[in-house]
């Protein structure tokens, strides 16, 4: 009676269909040519399978986390059958080096720019070959290479800079000393009363510039960031940022090419169906109706895409996972690249930082007459809703306030990571109410250890929001998946 109710029939799956790899978990678990009784729904699933789309592991997303996971699986013995599927027409995710917009020998990183926390323990360290053109970035320090200007372009004195830095340090001390047993509040709420004691308008503007370092690092505003989780994204690891001459995106792309990782581009996964029977494969369906099947799936898509529910899960994700996705913050940091016919600023400068309420931080590339402006948080969201022309007009009006002889730009490029359908933001942060438990929940596997997670937002126990965060997360999760596939 039970078999009849399930509409069971007798089928003979082909060996070529199900035995794709000598190490395939499907092979090991007797998915072999044999007579088996299965339901009609499962029969249809099996008949749709082919040698091209059955895997032990499908990695969704070819950003740093997915790449790191693939590298880890590749060096395992035996090697599981796996593939990376990527929605974009390129690898790298939010690490992407543009080599065509400006001069050929001036690559620009539209997303991540630095290898943060550069040290031997950094998972990217082993992939990097040192060059005499490598550069450690100290632009956010006082020195001859950085110009600090008031909003009208007048140079800020060392005395004002020192006093403002001292006040900002005291405000940061208030944040660090916030009682752990009190309810979490925003960083702004924590410092507001003390901040309002600053009576001098110029001094307040320079203090704002110092506090803006926090906002740019976290890609969010002080009124959204958690006081209790202040500085937790670096996990107490000293910041040491390396800039690569050919671009970080190029570096990541070369890792994929050098290791011959199996990647399918232009593959937009829209649906994931997880069967209740753990012996049945997970089915992934793409926007163009292709299907993939695997025992395990590793989700490495950005947190912004998870928040936007770009992938539909059947059954739905557990409530604790949905809560973690909602609770974690996704920040926005955009860049505006401006190329001019000439260099009108001091050519020895690497940075121009201004006490403006809008356009504060410019990096200088005098050899190609390029300025790079960083904008974050609410301002970045505002600019993303404007046309290029509107944004460029506003920025040039300000630049000409501080440099009256500045010409009109001859070329520009503006990133819009918040509108990017494969990102919906720049990188994660810890808003009010988020804790390390939030990150742990984001990293934890679900559906009986079949759906796994990695990314810069899910690096539990490590740094957050950086490329090395994603790489570390991908390595660790791949090891976890391998242990599921081949338990000791």
TrEMBL record:
<dbReference type="InterPro" id="IPR036188">
    <property type="entry name" value="FAD/NAD-bd_sf"/>
</dbReference>
<dbReference type="InterPro" id="IPR001613">
    <property type="entry name" value="Flavin_amine_oxidase"/>
</dbReference>
<dbReference type="InterPro" id="IPR050281">
    <property type="entry name" value="Flavin_monoamine_oxidase"/>
</dbReference>
<dbReference type="GO" id="GO:0008131">
    <property type="term" value="F:primary methylamine oxidase activity"/>
</dbReference>
<keyword id="KW-0285">Flavoprotein</keyword>
<feature type="domain" description="Amine oxidase">
    <location>
        <begin position="65"/>
        <end position="481"/>
    </location>
</feature>
<dbReference type="Pfam" id="PF01593">
    <property type="entry name" value="Amino_oxidase"/>
</dbReference>
<feature type="binding site">
    <location>
        <position position="374"/>
    </location>
    <ligand>
        <name>substrate</name>
    </ligand>
</feature>
<keyword id="KW-0560">Oxidoreductase</keyword>
<feature type="binding site">
    <location>
        <position position="269"/>
    </location>
    <ligand>
        <name>FAD</name>
    </ligand>
</feature>
<keyword id="KW-0274">FAD</keyword>
<feature type="binding site">
    <location>
        <begin position="86"/>
        <end position="87"/>
    </location>
    <ligand>
        <name>FAD</name>
    </ligand>
</feature>
<comment type="similarity">
    <text>Belongs to the flavin monoamine oxidase family.</text>
</comment>
<dbReference type="InterPro" id="IPR002937">
    <property type="entry name" value="Amino_oxidase"/>
</dbReference>
<feature type="binding site">
    <location>
        <position position="456"/>
    </location>
    <ligand>
        <name>FAD</name>
    </ligand>
</feature>
<protein>
    <recommendedName>
        <fullName>Amine oxidase</fullName>
        <ecNumber>1.4.3.-</ecNumber>
    </recommendedName>
</protein>
């Amino acid at each position: 009676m039970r078999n009849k109710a399930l509409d069971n029939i007798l089928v003979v799956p082909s060996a070529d269909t199900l035995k794709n790899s000598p190490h395939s978990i499907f092979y090991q678990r007797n998915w072999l040519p044999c007579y088996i009784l299965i339901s009609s729904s499962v029969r249809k699933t099996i008949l749709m399978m082919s040698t091209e789309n059955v895997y032990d592991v499908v990695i969704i997303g070819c950003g740093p986390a997915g790449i790191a996971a693939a590298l880890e699986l590749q060096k395992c013995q035996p090697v599981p059958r796996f593939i990376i599927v990527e929605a974009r027409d390129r690898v790298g995710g939010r690490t992407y080096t543009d080599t065509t917009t400006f001069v050929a020998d001036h690559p620009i990183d539209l997303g991540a720019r630095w290898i943060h926390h550069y040290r031997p323990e950094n998972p990217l360290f082993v992939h990097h070959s040192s060059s005499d053109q490598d550069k450690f970035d100290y632009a956010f320090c006082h020195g001859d290479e950085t110009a600090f200007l008031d909003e009208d372009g007048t140079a800020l004195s060392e005395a004002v800079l020192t006093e403002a830095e001292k006040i900002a340090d005291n405000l940061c001390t208030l944040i660090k000393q916030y009682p752990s047993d009190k309810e979490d509040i925003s960083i702004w709420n924590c410092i507001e009363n003390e901040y309002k004691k600053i009576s001098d308008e110029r001094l307040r503007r320079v203090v704002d510039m110092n506090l803006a370092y926090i906002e740019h690092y976290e890609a969010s505003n002080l009124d959204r960031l958690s006081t209790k989780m202040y500085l937790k994204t670096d996990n107490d690891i000293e910041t040491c940022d390396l800039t690569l001459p050919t671009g970080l995106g190029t570096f990541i792309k070369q890792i994929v090419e050098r290791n011959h990782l199996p990647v399918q581009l232009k593959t937009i996964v829209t649906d994931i169906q997880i069967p209740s029977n753990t012996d049945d494969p997970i089915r992934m369906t793409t926007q163009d109706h292709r299907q993939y099947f695997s025992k395990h799936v590793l989700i490495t898509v950005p947190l912004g895409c998870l928040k936007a529910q770009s992938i539909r899960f059947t059954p739905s994700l557990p409530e604790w996972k949905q809560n973690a996705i909602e609770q974690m913050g996704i920040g926005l940091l955009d860049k505006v690249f401006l190329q001019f016919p000439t260099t009108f600023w001091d050519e020895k400068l690497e940075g121009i930082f201004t006490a403006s309420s809008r356009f504060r931080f410019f990096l200088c590339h005098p050899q190609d007459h390029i300025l790079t402006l960083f904008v974050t948080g609410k301002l970045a969201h505002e600019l993303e809703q404007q046309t290029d022309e509107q944004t460029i007009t506003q920025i040039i009006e300000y630049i000409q306030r501080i440099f009256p002889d500045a010409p009109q730009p001859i070329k520009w490029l503006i990133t819009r990571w918040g509108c990017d359908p494969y990102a919906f933001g720049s990188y994660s942060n810890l808003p009010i109410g988020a804790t390390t438990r939030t990150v742990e929940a984001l990293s934890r596997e679900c559906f009986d250890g079949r759906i796994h997670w990695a990314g810069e937002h899910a690096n539990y126990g490590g740094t957050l929001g950086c490329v090395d965060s994603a790489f570390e997360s991908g390595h660790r999760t791949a090891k976890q998946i391998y242990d599921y596939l081949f338990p000791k």
